[in-house]
Amino acid sequence: MAGQIEIEVNGERREVPEGASVAELLTLIGLAAPKVAVERNLEIVPRSAWSSTRLGAGDRLEIVHFIGGG
Amino acid sequence: MDGIPQADEGWTVAGRRFRSRLIVGTGRYKDLPETKAAIEASGAEMVTVAVRRVNLSDASQPMLQDFVPPDRFTYLPNTAGCFTAQDAVRTLRLAREAGGWNLVKLEVLGPPPFLYPDMAATFEAAAALLADGFEVMVYCADDPVAAKRLEEMGCVAIMPLGAPIGSGLGVANPFMIKAIIAQARVPVLVDAGIGTASDAALAMELGCDAVLLNSAIAHARDPVRMARAMKAAVAAGRDAFLAGRMPRSPAADPSSPVAGLIR
């Protein structure tokens, strides 16, 4: 059983399994397919790199999407 | 030609052609079904959208895309709520990743209560975005010098405010909007300030290529009906601009012949 690491997602602290990828984080949150964008420590993580990008302790992520706006 | 003018030829921004000269926002509606109904009624083909954090506690809630599908409407991501160039650039980079397109609306705002465009920050953000391959439609002050500079930098559309965002005050300075249009070689849109249909018609009569609005529809008592009114107003204003208004005169000039009056 791998340990847990603490990261910050959209300003909230969150524990994820050590070695989890961005893709696995999205699955944990329940974001299946939708059009979202992910930023990790101020750098965009392209969709093509979601599976290969491993999360590290203390990472700060922003997960955004489009909402109504003027 | 049978003497009846052709239907509006539409307008082009960054190589994309649009028939509708109305761009509408997707914010401030009661709910997503009302958003959808109003946008349908407006006839708009391009809609502005905001970029915000996903709600982590309920990731399954309905999304804008389900009601306003991006394959039918051109999404124009905005930077609403950004008060620095850095935040605006960061937001639009995320938008490009989320949507996969380069055409964006840049707005960098000054402080409340006016949220007037911060032009120094707008220039800074525009330069960074243009260097990064974005096609930038830029919200700006109704300042002909600033507008020309943004065009020369490479912005694809110049969008001066009619009046402060969400104020519904209409086109406060039509002379400066006209001055900006007269010198521009890229599309000019009045963005922000429109309150009702006559404001949108006036903006078009000044010679704007299109009008961008949100609150005027979303905050009307009947948003769907106002959306329909805006569609008609923009079309009427465009036709009136092309037709050319009659000269103003301080004195009466009767339309009926003076000859042949009964005595």
| Oligomer status | heterodimer
How are helices and strands ordered from N to C of chain A?
A: EEHEEE
Helix content of chain B: 25-40%
CA-based gyration radius of chain A? 12 Å
Order of helices and strands of chain B: EEEHEHEHEHEHEHEHEHH
- Supply Rg of chain B: 20 Å
Q: How is the biggest beta sheet of chain A arranged?
A: 5 strands, mixed
Strand order of the largest sheet of chain A: 2-1-5-3-4
Strand content of chain B: 15-25%
Main sheet strand line-up of chain B: 5-4-3-10-9
Low-confidence region ranges of chain B? none
- Enumerate how many helices of chain A there are, as a single number: 1
Shape verdict of chain A: globular
SS-based class of chain A:
mainly beta
Mean pLDDT of chain A: 90
- What's the shape of chain B? globular
Give structural notes:
The complex is a heterodimer of chains A (70) and B (263). Chain A contains one helix and five strands, in the order E-E-H-E-E-E. Chain A has one helix at 22-29; strands at 4-9, 12-17, 37-40, 43-45, 60-68. In chain A, strand 3 and strand 4 (43-45) form a beta hairpin. Chain A is globular, with a radius of gyration of 12 Å. Chain A starts with a strand and ends with a strand. The mean pLDDT of chain A is 90. Chain B has nine helices and ten strands. In chain B, strands 5-4-3-10-9 form a five-stranded parallel β-sheet. In chain B, helix 1 (32-42) packs parallel to helix 9 and helix 7 runs parallel beside helix 9. Chain B is globular. The chains are: A mainly beta (70), B alpha/beta (263). The A-B interface holds A 9-12, 29-31, 34-39, 42, 44, 46-47, 62-70 and B 25-29, 32, 35, 48-54, 56, 59-60, 63-65, 70, 75, 77-78, 80, 90, 93-95, 97-99, 165-166, 213-215, 218. Strand 5 (60-68) of chain A pairs antiparallel with strand 4 (46-53) of chain B.
